[in-house]
Amino acid sequence: MATPGWAGRTMLLLMSCELVCLTVSAPPTVTLRNGVKMPLLAAGCWQYNSSTAFDSVSAAFSVGINMVDTALDYGNQDGVGRALASFPRDQIFVETKVPGCGLDKSTLNLLDCYKDTQKNLESDLSLLNVSYVDLVIVHFPPVTSFVTRSCNNWSGGCEMVRAQWKAMEEFYKQGKARAIGVSNYCPSCYDCLKSADIFPMVNQIQFHLGMGTDPAGFVSYHKKMGVQLQAYSVLGNNPIKHSASEEILRGNLTTSIGKSHNKSSVQVALKWVVDQGIPAVTKSANAKHLKEDLDLWSWELTAAEKEALDNHRNPAGSPSFACSSETASEFVV
User: Fold this and answer.
1) pTM for this one?
2) Active-site annotation holds for 232
3) CB–CB of 259/6 below 8 Å?
């Protein structure tokens, strides 16, 4: 039997979904500073090739997940774009990313930071085959932050942040993105944007069970700044294997709480994140697992369970591997 093409695989996914999917409401949303409503759950596709991204994202949309998280440097946006083509565009929240300054080429010339960002933003639209995205974020701080652990003036980091953000602001003002933000930014990076016309609306960071409710003060800091956090690596991240945390997947705490609600440890870990009002990026190529990821709002953790999860500590993980939580100057946005 011949292997079906992408359109055929979409139909197979939709047909097979009838076996595992019930009528599920779309995830709740958070409201960004500019009024845009962002779903609390997104289908991620890091480490997927274009074909796997197409299958996974199509399955996610079919079960009711209405947001996708991708990036230019994932190399799979054409597959995501094919999946998007089979669903109403205005019902899907599309998030993508552009590389931080200097991370996609060797030069650190400020004009290149600006021009490369312009080019990469247009590439996002072209590869996804859309006229606009709902959210685009800068994937990392400038490359110098990986050495200095900071966006600071003496390393040239601030100048690079501002050059890149200028292109982001222009893209937003042209109506090509409904919201703009950053990822892996720390307070010193925001300090570089004190005079920006538009302040970042979202910061996507590593956040998962075991880090506490306010790791390195990031959660409270961003609430004060009016920047919505979004969580990646929501099941932990082994820095060597780039895999989920065994403690989260099979630890006594998550498995025992899951058993009491007839839920999985994954659902427990995801629920802990979204219950704090922090959107989560999850990932699976299995429609049944994706539907389980979506089932986070039909049940509640008890006060005792929430306290145990809040106080649980897993030493692996920090909000940003690109910079530290060093204190920035106080300013209000």
Assistant:
1) 0.89
2) no
3) no
Annotated binding site: 139
Contact 128, 77 (CB under 8 A): yes
Q: How many distinct structural domains can be found in the chain?
A: 1
Q: Is residue 19 domain-resident?
A: no
Q: Which are the contacts of 223, defined by CB distance < 8 A and separation ≥ 6? A: none
Asked if residue 7 is part of any domain, the answer here is no
DSSP assignment of 42-78: EEE-TT--HHHHHHHHHHHHHHT--EEE--GGGT-HH
Domain hosting 207: range is: 29-311
Helix or strand run (H / E) with residue 12: helix 6-20
Give the annotated binding-site residues for substrate. Answer: 139
HSE (side-chain half, CA atoms, 13 Å) at 239: 7
Cα four-point dihedral sign 219, 225, 230, 233: negative
- Considering the domain boundaries, does residue 253 fall inside one? yes
Mean pLDDT by 10 residues, the chain (333 residues): 41 40 71 98 95 96 96 96 96 96 70 91 98 97 84 81 96 98 93 94 96 91 95 83 82 96 97 97 90 94 97 81 64 47
Closest CA to 61 of 36, 30, 35, 82: 82
Q: Are 191 and 299 in contact (CB under 8 A)?
A: no
| Bridge partners for 205 per DSSP | 231
Is the residue at 307 inside a domain? yes
Rounded Cα distance between 29 and 45, Å, is 21
Q: Pick the catalytic residue: 74, 190, 221, 232?
A: 74
Report which of 168, 34, 30, 159 is spatially closest to residue 96, judged by C-alpha positions: 168
CATH code for the domain in which residue 285 is found: 3.20.20.100
CA 171-43-237 angle, 5° bins: 100
